[in-house]
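Notebook, bench 3.
Goal today: get a predicted structure for Peptidase PmbA from Aneurinibacillus soli so we can plan the truncation constructs. The sequence was checked against the plasmid map this morning, with no discrepancies at the termini. Length recorded as 433 residues. Pasting the sequence as submitted so the record is complete.
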Amino acid sequence: MIEQLFALAQKKHITELEALTSESTNFSVQAYEGKIESYKKTNTAGIGVRGTYQSGTGYAYTERVHPSEAEALLDMVKDNASLIHEREPLLAEKQEGSWHDSQPDITEEEKIALALELESRARQAADVSDVSYAMISSGDGMRRIANTYGLNKSYRSNYSMAYLSVIVKRGDDVETDSSYYIGDLRHVSLDSLIEEAAGKARRKLGGKAVPTGSYPVVLDRRIICSLLGVYSSIFSARNVLQGTSRLEGMLGEKLFGSLDLLDDPYSGHERILFDDEGVDTRTLHLVRDGVIESYLHSLKTAAEMKQTPTAHGLRSYKGTVQIAPHRLQIPNGTQELAALFADMGSGLYITDVQGLHSGTNAISGDFSLAAQGYRIENGQLASPVKDITIAHNFFDLFSQPAVKATDFEFSMPSGHSQFGAPSILFPAISVSS
């Protein structure tokens, strides 16, 4: 169908055309109380086109990937381009390639049995009163980007995941936590998943608030990943151009202490070899030793700012080009987590936060989040802490001296982007109760 679209575009005086196709199969099964509570299998496919007509760029898409849709699709491109009067550049290079990353998979029957076994065994763990989620999921997807300049790239990959969330109860005290595994399900350790989720939840039992004040704090790697997810938008060149990022005009400035922040598209749960405009990805340092080195660019923002594209133009076949990171991460540290506690002496280890959407401001950098964790006393993990709020500013937080642990981990995938970080010791964070 793509070749037909390109031929027809010439007849309709569409001077350049790009086509993005996507197809995926997703499976998930969830067990509860010894039965299958949810079973889903979906197949999706679609094609989105972006073309230049007269002086504007128009978008259109269809989920009926059939030659009979070609003419209507291109007519929508022309209609939409006539309304916009602004051209978005396409990658004007002939580049071709096809890649396939795959891992072994198990049958659907085996996934169902695995979900049932995970749920059953989790219920037998000490203090577990209920299992919120015992889920096995998998997916297989392919995307192809091509245009009338000779661009033609495709990539196929798959994934498998086990996810567990449990509730523990001791008297009237109730807590919850979760764990996950991504990879070959033939090698998943259910015991490790259960102990991680139940163990983290058990350690929260009996938590109490601490007095209001300023404390040295170790933020767990999961919290760091969450903050990166919220504040990654400040590196978007589109936000810089629109004046909604504090990093406007800050390239080359030392703003973040000794922080290193990079986007490595070849790490995480799957590789990202090219973006949704066809630009080849590369490892990109956004911040090196506190100095801002780059923004995240699409072809359009790179042209506007006269900078090199960074391969961060992303879209689904249904949407327009947006900007987001691939595998944004803070590199691993050199000290064990226990050594950070010892260096701290007394303070807090924060392991959970709530309110990431309502309690953060990506423009000012301010955040105020409900939190849980543990006291650190004499350099040792002590009693659990809850019913507190931590508050700081993202820019000020990372301008402080910070010590990184050696427990680097990626967050659970959610959408395109994935974030990675170790736990980090900060000298002072405001805490209220």
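The mean pLDDT is 96. DSSP finds nine helices and 21 strands in the chain.
Flagging this for group meeting.
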